[in-house]
Design goal:
The complex is a heterodimer of chains A (283) and B (285). Chain A has 283 residues and is an all-alpha fold. Helices cover 66% and strands 0% of the residues of chain A. Chain A has 11 helices and no strands. The longest helix of chain A is centred in the middle third of the chain and has 33 residues. In chain A, 46% of the residues are buried. Chain B has 285 residues and is mainly α. Chain B has one domain. In chain B, helix 5 packs across helix 10 and helix 7 runs antiparallel to helix 12. The mean pLDDT of chain B is 88. Classes of the chains: A mainly alpha (283), B mainly alpha (285). Chains A and B meet through helix 2, helix 4 and helix 10 of A and helix 5 and helix 10 of B.
Chain lengths: 283, 285
């Protein structure tokens, strides 16, 4: 078991390193978006478009403003129209696409031989799940590392604590994160999106054992899109939105609930996948 | 060419991918219809409010829920958000998977010697355009007609500007208040054209990638990136530049006709240069 996990992780990551460049590319795009947002904020605070260094922006602001999603529709009519959080959506959908065909591609290549050598299909499936989770974690590590580097290069703060004035202006909401511990903020801004993406990727990979991969991808895309307007814990995407987390304090989607739900869903995905692969005719 | 086109259209419209794209769209259309029915006939719906106003002798302002604010293209429901986020995927699905299969399988090697590369790729693009457009328009048409059977088609008044997201200078805004049904139908036509052009984006990707899923997912991710770039102009003007928001009637910013023109030119250029031209020059061995 250990050998197959090691083999999968080594070759899966070595072969998939180009996919991690996508994370860095997305990081670059996120930063450009943040830069344009800062121009607007700078106009608001200072009356000049390019003096945004006076605002003291940090890595926390980049994550909350660009990857933090939003509060959903807060009223009726186009005057309070809902703006879809595309960057947040893309940041989760991209790793889902990266891990979409891990199992189905391997099944149509050398996966069947590995299963017979392992004398257990379950072990093969568990190693694919480990690779899927590892790729998602590496994707987020690359994304945040790139953002950290760019923030440092542009002279922005590298702390993950968002600026109160920027938050208040951008979201038009009271900022209560000042009373939150750095650990809680780290969990909400960094860990929760990773947990949700791992759970969704595993569910998606388990779905690919039942339906064609593109349907699993569409199901995840629809589920995530529905999460942007819903405020139910059943819509897992809400836990991946830092602005709706208990650390920011408006909607109170807390870390412990996120951890419990994500762990339960990941376990269900692993068990369903294991059951399915045991029943599949691989000859 | 006519026989080839007929075959390609048959393949596109009779494929299970087309059926699944339409079914997913219809699910969103039914979901939106349910929300509209609740909004009108529900416990706290518009009819209940109207009764309350008449009993309490309160003057009502505006029309509340009408067909023109409740159909899938204009609704503020979650179904609308899900449908328009999946819009490019639904358009890409009917031909995207098929194109990749044919280019990377043996089919193209058998057909191209008979009809020529240019004719083959032209027929493929045309079939993708028509099936992609139809896949997104059928759910919209179904929803418009089904909603019309349930929700009164009261013509909008200037009071409804709070629920009707059409502002001065927007595409077709000249007749959006005077002829709202015509406006809705015109927008379905716009969606057909954009859906068709989105669907054709599968060809440039399929020419470069052997993965079947990539032909659908990569154009979708590119369109999402274009959508995410809509904030780039906010410090100059609140113009809608996202291709994914331009296809929806319910949007946040002003949708000027020239922006539609620019996007049509970009999408057509990408499809013709990276799809048709590159495809026609491709060696098939």
């Amino acid at each position: 078991m250990y050998k197959v996990v090691r083999y999968d992780l080594r070759y899966g990551i070595l072969e998939g390193w180009r996919k991690l460049l996508l994370a860095a590319a997305l990081g670059g795009f996120v930063f450009i978006n943040f830069y344009f947002d800062l121009v607007g904020l700078s106009m608001y605070f200072t009356g000049e478009p390019w003096s945004f260094n006076k605002l003291d922006p940090s890595l926390g602001d980049v994550i909350v403003l660009e990857l933090g999603a939003n509060f959903g529709r807060t009223g009726g009519g186009p005057t309070s129209s809902f703006v879809f959080p595309t960057l947040w959506y893309l940041s989760i959908l991209l790793p889902c696409y990266m891990t979409l065909t891990l199992a189905s591609d391997d099944l149509s290549a050398g996966g069947v031989q590995i299963m017979s050598r392992l004398r257990g299909r379950g072990r093969w499936w568990l190693s694919k799940c480990a690779l899927c989770a590892a790729l998602v974690v590496l994707y987020y590590a690359a994304l945040y590392a790139f953002l950290w580097l760019v923030c440092a290069a542009f002279g922005f703060g590298t702390s993950i604590v968002p600026d109160e004035a920027i938050f208040n202006t951008y979201f038009g909401a009271v900022f209560v994160a000042a009373e939150t511990t750095p650990a809680a903020l780290f969990a909400a801004l960094i860990v929760q999106p990773i947990l949700v993406t791992v759970a969704l990727s595993l569910l998606q990979m388990a779905m690919t054992l039942f339906v064609k991969p593109i349907y699993a991808f569409i199901a995840v895309a629809a589920y995530l899109a529905a999460s942007t307007l819903g405020f139910s814990p059943a819509l897992l995407g809400t836990f991946a939105m830092p602005v709706r987390s208990s650390a920011i304090g408006v909607y109170n989607f807390d870390f412990l609930s996120c951890l419990t739900i994500c762990a339960a869903l990941s376990l269900i995905a692993v068990l369903i996948g294991r059951w399915r692969i045991a029943k599949t005719d691989i000859l | 060419m006519r026989g080839l086109l007929k075959t390609e259209l048959k393949k596109a419209f009779r494929s299970p991918w087309f059926a699944s794209a339409v079914l997913i769209g219809l699910a969103c259309a039914l979901w939106c219809l349910w929300d509209a029915a609740k909004e009108v006939y529900g416990e706290n719906g518009w009819f209940a409010f109207e009764r309350y106003c008449m009993e309490s002798e309160i003057m009502m302002v505006g029309n509340g829920t009408t067909l023109y604010t409740a159909w899938l293209g204009m609704s503020q429901s979650t179904a609308h958000t899900v449908f328009y986020r999946l819009f490019p995927l639904l358009a890409l699905l009917p031909c995207g998977m098929g194109i990749s299969e044919e280019l990377n399988g043996g089919y193209v090697k058998a057909v191209v010697p008979l009809v020529g590369r240019k004719k083959y790729f032209s027929a493929k693009l045309l079939a993708a355009f028509l099936s992609g457009g139809a896949a997104v328009c059928l759910p919209l048409l179904f929803n418009l007609t089904a909603t019309a059977a349930l929700v009164p088609a009261i013509r909008l008044s200037p009071y409804d500007v709070t629920t009707y997201a059409v502002s001065h200078g927007d595409l077709f805004s000249a007749f959006s208040y005077s002829h709202p049904l015509l406006y809705a139908l015109a927008f379905i036509d716009v969606d057909f054209i954009f859906g068709g052009l989105f669907a054709c984006l599968a060809l440039p990707v399929a020419l470069r990638s052997e993965k079947r899923v990539a032909a659908v997912a990569i154009p979708y991710i590119c369109l999402l990136l274009a959508d995410a770039a809509k904030g780039f102009l906010y410090f100059i003007s609140y113009l809608e530049i996202s291709p994914m928001d331009l296809v929806s009637v319910q949007r946040f910013n002003m949708a000027k006709p020239w922006i539609y023109g620019v996007w049509l030119a970009i999408l057509a250029g990408v499809n013709l240069v990276l799809g048709l031209w590159k495809g026609a020059k491709r060696d098939i061995v």
